Amino acid sequence: MGDPDRAQERFDTLIDADARIEPSDWMPDDYRQTLIRQIAQHAHSEIIGMQPEGAWLTRAPSLRRKAILTAKVQDEAGHGMYLYGAAETLGVDRGELLDRLHTGRQKYSSIFNYPTPTWADVGAIGWLVDGAAIMNQVPLCRCSYGPYARAMVRICKEESFHQRQGFQIMLTLANGTPAQREMAQGALDRWWWPALMMFGPPDAESVHGGQSMRWGIKRFGNDELRQKFVDATVPQAELLGLTVPDPDLRYDAGTGHWVSGPIDWDEFWRVVKGDGPCNAERIATRTTAHADGEWVRAAATAYAAKRLGDEQSDTARHDPFGDAA
Amino acid sequence: MWEVFVRAKRGVSHVHTGTVHAPDAELALQHARDLFTRRSEGVSVWVVRSTDITASNPDDRESLFDPALDKTFRHPTDFELPDEVANM
To answer: Which end of chain B is more exposed for a tag (fewer CB within 10 A), N or C?
Structure first.
């Protein structure tokens, strides 16, 4: 675009009008880089997020549960693909993004660095982790960047099945034998606080929050969304007959909100910085899977090249003068 | 890279839904099917190499599309008729 001031002005006008920015539009470099970082991290989270639940695919308690879990894990892979596709519209290569994930230069959601020791953890992930993800993601359907917003619309439609299947697993266990109830309670104890941390640090400490709000990438603050999640989830725990592991949790009749106790942000930062229970394992599994798939990618590329070669020599044989083109 | 277009049901057009990576059209079609039609979202899929699409230049937006703005007479609502002419 010829005049940079005019380009910036046009961008600002679109943002102010709450219109969408599309890949061919001029955009400030900071906006582009912020989106690449956020969409890539989101994509990485979906891909790494296949692992904690994938661990239970071979041990699901029934064929139906196994089919459901397979479909869910496949959805997570699909979400990763939608998001890498959206990131690529900003001029970055998918291979480069995967490389950044594998070498630790880009992060994924810390929630996936926690283990899934029991089947109830699969239920708790669907109920709490996917529930928190939905709270975070629904506003992204109105994100100012068109391809990201469109990917999120598809993702949100699919996440709703994920949360409901998780809650149903919890419901079955909570109404089961004492051992099953205990298993469900244990999973809630393990996932409650990490789920609250998924909304990110308090707004006062959030580094990118303000600018992202002005750009229409982010629509609500971290604390506001976290509160929304607590308000929605506490009654669900009551319905299950399970206890939320927060001794300070109380209902404030004046505001109509559930007030939770303090979050251990030291733990959050420890896990973000690499010292969670499964950080090393997750990356090792991912890089091994990528390396193990190399021969498949190479074979498919070689086959495509060979077929293209065959087609061209066929054309040459049947059409020696090149008229058919 | 391939652009994917899906026809949701008979009677409507194929609509752009996203992109897939694949070395050839056949695999692109399979990936597109796996990625975009897991919940009966389509009855037909097209894939087109991204580099085969020619798009209008955003810099030309004004010269291409703005001339339509002052030709409101192309729309039926531009013509005020007496109320007696009920259905036209």
So the answer is: C
